[in-house]
Structures are given as structure tokens and as C-alpha cells.
């Protein structure tokens, strides 16, 4: 369980990015974080893993209050949080396998990481993960030889190699074509269900979010203005999040767009912090 309570972020310039954001994400639930550019979505994700320091509020993962940690305790806690980036953040000169194994760097000694001599268990698990994301045949390719969708799959495998308790996903489909975007979102949803992982996905594509996530949280100017199931995202809610627009177009499926399979039975109902 991830619990965010009255999270605030004000920068040194005086700009406020987050204003008392509060919600919970239970195990196995994939939450889509939506809102206009500048709403605070990326800041929220980075405050959770402390890449950005919150100004106030609390973030708790399981029994650990992340916002109170420093030094070694914070480094150890970050091992429990898998991060998947918009721009993949791969080391392009390394192989796919080496990039996946980099998810274990927080668990091995400096010399093992420096010489890239990982334990056999980690290597076996990396092969299993590459098989799961459909890239087993690409294990020995350099990362710069892959397509965008393949690179994002490597990023997913690398995050899972950490054996995380939480996934944070920042714009995973921004650089991908529509078909590949659906494949990546479907894969994320499946691995969250399989591993009972809570996940927060920062995503601009509202129709794609509605199609694949279990729940949506909407931000506007740093404030939380929506928290409900995708089916509840009507025109009034969209206007509250984004402002006035012709929102009826979001309800129409594009020609030839493949529907997502039904959400896994284990998906949790909406749970809002009191």
C-alpha cells in the first residue's frame, strides 16, 4: 500500500507545484495520473521517491514513511521503488541484458557492479523477465539497436529486476505510436496484476488511460480535483481537470483501435484516503 497525505511542493522561486495531494494506492492497483502540462504530475512522482524533496506532507510505502528517510535509509527504500522513464534512461552502449541487470545495482557490491559480475540468481531472473516482456531473443543486442517500444520494455524489465514494492511510471507512451502504446500499457497492467504491485502512471493520453488503468487521479494547478474509476470521467470531470473543450470526442474509439481485455479480476476498487 502506498499512502500519500497532504503532499505539498513549493520551489525556491515561490512556484507551488503540489497543494495537499492525498490518496492511497492499494496493492495490485494501477492508477493513472492525468492533468494538463504543469499540473504537478511529474513532480508528484518524483516526490514519492524523493528525487524532488516535498515541502510538506507524508509519503508512506507499507510500514515505511519515505518522507522521513535520509542517507542509507533513503537509498535502501529507493530499491523498493521501480521507476520507468519516458526517455527510457538506458545505457545505449550496453546490451539489453546488462541494462536489465542494472536494476540490481543497489543489491550488489561496488566491485560486482563495476565488473558487471552479477549473482547467478540475478542473471536467471533477468532472462525470465526478458522472456516476460518479449525480448528474450534480444538479450545480447546493444540497447541503441532497439526500437522505442523495445527500449520501453527493457525499462520495464529493469524496474522489475529490482523486485519492487511500487512502480512509478513517467509518460511511458509519449514517444510511441498508438499500437505500441497500447502494448506497453497492457504489459504494465498485466505485470502489476501478476505481482500484486501498486503503480502510478503519469500519462497525457486520456483515452489510453481510461482504457487500461484501474483508477484515475486528476491534477490541476497542483490540486487533486478527481479521484475515481475511469468510467466516472465524464465531461464535467474533464472540464474540472483540463478546462473547457469538446470532450465528447474522447468517447469515440478510433477506427481499427483494438479494445483492451477486461481488467484482471484482482483489480482493487477505488480507495480514497479519508
Automatic annotation (TrEMBL):
SMART domains: AAA (SM00382). GO terms for cellular component: plasma membrane. The keyword Membrane applies. Its main location: membrane. Pfam families: ABC_tran. NCBIfam families: ABC_phnC. This is Phosphonate ABC transporter ATP-binding protein. It comes from Halomonas icarae. The gene is phnC.
Amino acid at each position: 500500500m502506498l499512502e500519500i497525505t497532504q503532499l505539498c511542493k513549493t520551489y525556491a522561486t515561490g512556484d507551488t507545484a503540489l497543494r495537499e495531494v492525498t490518496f492511497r494506492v492499494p496493492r495490485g492497483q494501477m492508477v493513472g495520473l492525468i492533468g494538463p502540462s504543469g499540473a504537478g504530475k511529474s513532480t508528484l512522482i518524483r516526490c514519492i521517491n524523493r528525487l524532488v524533496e516535498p515541502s510538506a506532507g507524508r509519503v508512506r510505502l507499507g510500514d515505511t514513511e519515505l518522507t522521513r528517510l535520509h542517507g542509507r535509509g533513503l537509498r535502501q527504500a529507493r530499491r523498493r521503488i521501480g521507476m520507468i522513464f519516458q526517455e527510457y534512461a538506458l545505457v545505449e552502449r550496453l546490451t539489453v541484458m546488462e541494462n536489465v541487470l542494472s536494476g540490481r545495482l543497489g543489491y550488489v557490491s561496488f566491485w560486482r557492479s563495476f565488473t558487471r559480475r552479477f549473482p547467478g540468481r540475478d542473471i536467471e531472473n533477468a532472462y525470465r523477465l526478458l522472456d516476460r516482456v518479449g525480448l528474450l531473443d534480444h538479450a545480447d543486442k546493444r540497447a541503441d539497436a532497439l526500437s522505442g517500444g523495445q527500449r520501453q520494455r527493457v525499462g520495464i524489465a529493469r524496474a522489475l529486476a529490482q523486485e519492487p514494492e511500487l512502480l512509478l511510471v513517467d509518460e511511458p507512451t509519449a514517444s510511441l505510436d498508438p499500437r505500441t502504446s497500447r502494448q506497453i500499457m497492457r504489459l504494465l497492467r498485466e505485470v502489476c496484476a501478476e505481482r500484486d504491485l501498486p503503480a502510478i502512471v503519469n500519462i497525457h493520453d486520456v483515452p489510453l488511460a481510461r482504457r487500461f488503468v484501474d483508477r484515475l487521479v486528476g491534477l490541476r494547478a497542483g490540486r487533486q480535483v478527481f479521484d475515481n474509476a475511469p468510467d466516472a470521467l465524464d465531461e464535467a470531470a474533464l472540464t474540472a481537470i483540463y478546462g473547457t473543450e469538446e470532450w465528447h470526442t474522447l468517447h469515440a474509439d478510433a477506427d481499427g483501435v483494438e479494445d483492451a481485455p477486461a481488467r484482471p479480476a484482482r483489480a482493487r476498487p477505488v480507495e480514497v484516503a479519508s
